[in-house]
Amino acid sequence: NADAAMYLAKSSGRNSYKFYTADLNARAREILAIESQLRFALERDEFVLHYQPLVDMHSGRVVGAEALIRWQHPNLGLIGPAGFIQVAEERGFIVQIGNWVIREACRQLAEWLARGLPAVKVSVNLSALQFRQQELSTVIEDALAEHGLSGDCLDVEVTETVVMEDAEATLAAIERIKGMGLSLSVDDFGTGYSSLSYLKRFKADKIKIDRSFVRDIPGDSDDAAITRAIINMAKFLNMKVVAEGVETREQWDFLAGEGCDLVQGFLVAKPMPAADFAARYGKTPRVELAELGL
Ligand code: C2E
Ligand code: MG
Ligand code: MG
Ligand code: MG
Q1: Distance (Å) from CA 69 to ligand 4 centroid
Q2: Cα separation of 28 and 285, whole Å?
Q3: Boundaries of each EAL domain copy (predicted)?
Q4: Which listed residue, 3, 134, 223, 293, has the most CB atoms within 10 A of its CB?
């Protein structure tokens, strides 16, 4: 009856409130701890970039490397971006960290090229706040110039949400970046809210299908349909399409059958330190599909 229902609602409400505050306190403490140390992580040189290959499905060629940040914490070991990027964004550290990522990716690529390694395009992830700083394009320009690189060595990955948040300013920044020869990828596509007209306006070169859609293909018919639709849309818009998070042969086969261009995922390789990336792909920048069982 109504009273019993009300009682249940109240008691479960109170319980969940208690859990919520406990969680919140734990989360607050965690944020404080991370925040106080994150502040010094840059000057202590504790960040590293790992690299994950982007592979052309048809040829097996490694056409790119996504640079993914990790924090080498003195006590806690290697911390992935899930453990600190959000805090860095909330506290405004992300701009400096993101600028470091751009410079470090350029430095690494120049080092590889100087050692005669074949050129791969390096992708860096940019957060929304980096687009709000006036000097983003200058930071990129200086980093490229310092290492003697041209703009087409770099690709920037932004999520749909970044573009939608402050569309006009972001579009202007993207235009400047593209004018320098960089390519643009829309990351985590399908998880944010985007309008197809913006997608067209900012002329992305690549769309990266979010891992959450790839995970359950081909078995999940909804995800299969969404994946197929994104691939077809990308084709019509003349954009390359990348499937993120490809872990199985079945996912690969489905994507290949649907005409997906590029894949990134544990099936090919996990993100790895720069030295490992060079050792593995430096001589022959390709993946033997037969070795993957393909
Ligand atoms: P993202 O840009 O979508 O990067 C792909 C993420 O998927 C990476 O996680 C990668 O390790 C993971 N991944 C790739 N293939 C597979 C797979 O087959 N299976 C599974 N389970 N995961 C796979 P990671 O390195 O933990 O990065 C997470 C997110 O953190 C990135 O998602 C990106 O949004 C953010 N991030 C990473 N580096 C930076 C950075 O330098 N700056 C900013 N602003 N964000 C970054
Ligand atoms: Mg990315
Ligand atoms: Mg992604
Ligand atoms: Mg992501």
Answers
A1: 12
A2: 44
A3: 31-285
A4: 223
